[in-house]
Write a structure and sequence with these properties.
Arc Repressor Mutant, subunit A, seven-stranded mixed sheet, D-Maltodextrin-Binding Protein, domain 2, 11 strands, 3 domains, alpha/beta
C-alpha cells in the first residue's frame, strides 16, 4: 500500500472534504479521488459515506484511519532511526562485550570516545562469548569485544592477558613462583559456565596438559570465581589481575605453559557494512589503542 496514498487518506479523513484535502496536500481533486478509489478497491469496502456532497468517515474508514496513522508513525520513526544510525556524529553503536571487560577497558573506551563524539548513542550488551556471537550473527549488535577470536570474523587485537592459577592464600601452591597446569589434575576447579571464552580456553589448556579436573562450581563472572577460590572451594584459571582488582584472599600463580594467555579483540560481521558511527568507533579504537590498552 502506497505510503503517500495512506497520508492522503488520513488528511481526507480529517477534513472529510475532497476540495479542502486536495488543497492542503497540493494535488488535484481528480488525483485524490482516483487514489481514494484505488484504496477502497484494495480494502474491499467503502471508507466514506457520501452525505450532501461531503464525505463522512464510516466504520470501515475509522478502522483504516487508526491503522494508517500507526503505520505512518512507524515508518517515519524507522526512517528517523535509520538516518540517525547512518550519521557518524549522531548515530547509534550497538556494542557487545564480555563480563570481564565491564570493570575497566569498556568503560574507559566509552568515556574517551564520548569525549570526541558526544552525540553518538550506545546500545550495550554484556554477556558470554557464545551469547555475544549469537547476537552478532543475528544482527542485533554491530561490534563485539570478545575472546577468543571467532573463526571467519574480522579481528582487531586490543590487548593480551596472561593466564594464571588462582588458589586460596593458604593453599600448598600459594608460594610457588610458577606452576605447570599438569600439576593440578587432582584439584577441584571453579570455572565459568560453558559458552564463556575463558571457559573454552581453560578446557583447551587442561586438555593439552592431559588433565580432566572436577568442576565443583560454574559461575558467570570472574569475580565470583575468585571469591569462591578465596573461600576454599577450589582453584581456577583466570587472567592475571591488575593489582587494584586482585582478590586479597587469592594467590595468583603464573602458569608455565606458553599458551596460557588470551587475546581480547574487536570483531564484527564480515558480510555487513558497519554503520558510520560503528566504523568511527573502530577507527577511534585503533588510533588510540596504545592509550586504551
Amino acid at each position: 500500500m502506497d505510503l503517500d496514498e495512506l497520508h492522503w487518506f488520513v488528511v481526507l479523513a480529517e477534513t472529510e472534504h475532497v476540495t479542502d484535502a486536495a488543497a492542503e496536500l497540493g494535488i488535484s481533486q481528480p488525483t485524490l479521488s482516483r487514489a481514494l478509489s484505488r484504496l477502497e478497491s484494495r480494502i474491499g469496502a467503502p471508507l466514506f459515506d457520501r452525505v450532501n456532497r461531503r464525505l463522512q468517515l464510516n466504520t470501515y474508514g475509522a478502522i483504516l484511519l487508526e491503522h494508517a496513522r500507526r503505520s505512518i508513525a512507524e515508518i517515519t520513526s524507522a526512517a528517523e532511526r535509520i538516518a540517525a544510525l547512518r550519521d557518524p556524529d549522531t548515530g547509534t553503536v550497538r556494542l557487545a562485550f564480555l563480563h570481564s571487560q565491564a570493570g575497566g577497558f569498556v568503560p574507559d573506551l566509552l568515556r574517551r570516545f564520548r569525549a570526541e563524539a558526544p552525540q553518538v548513542q550506545f546500545e550495550l550488551f554484556q554477556g558470554a562469548t557464545l551469547d555475544i556471537l549469537d547476537r552478532l550473527d543475528g544482527g542485533h549488535v554491530d561490534l563485539a569485544i570478545t575472546s577468543p577470536r571467532p573463526a571467519g570474523y574480522p579481528w582487531r587485537v586490543l590487548y593480551g592477558e596472561r593466564l594464571c592459577l588462582a588458589v586460596p592464600r593458604e593453599h600448598r601452591f600459594a608460594e610457588r613462583s610458577r606452576l605447570r597446569l599438569a600439576d593440578t589434575g587432582d584439584e577441584p576447579f571453579v570455572a565459568l559456565q560453558p559458552g564463556f571464552g575463558l571457559r573454552q580456553l581453560t578446557d583447551e589448556l587442561c586438555a593439552a596438559a592431559g588433565i580432566a579436573p572436577t568442576i565443583v562450581f560454574e559461575a558467570m563472572e570472574i569475580p565470583t570465581v575468585e571469591g569462591l577460590v578465596a573461600a576454599g572451594f577450589g582453584v581456577a584459571v583466570v587472567p592475571v589481575p591488575h593489582p587494584d582488582r586482585a582478590d586479597t584472599g587469592v594467590a595468583y600463580i603464573p602458569l608455565s605453559e606458553p599458551t596460557a594467555k588470551r587475546q581480547l579483540g574487536l570483531t564484527w560481521r564480515p558480510d555487513r557494512e558497519l554503520p558510520p558511527a560503528a566504523s568511527r568507533l573502530v577507527e577511534f579504537v585503533m588510533h588510540n589503542l596504545h592509550e586504551l590498552a
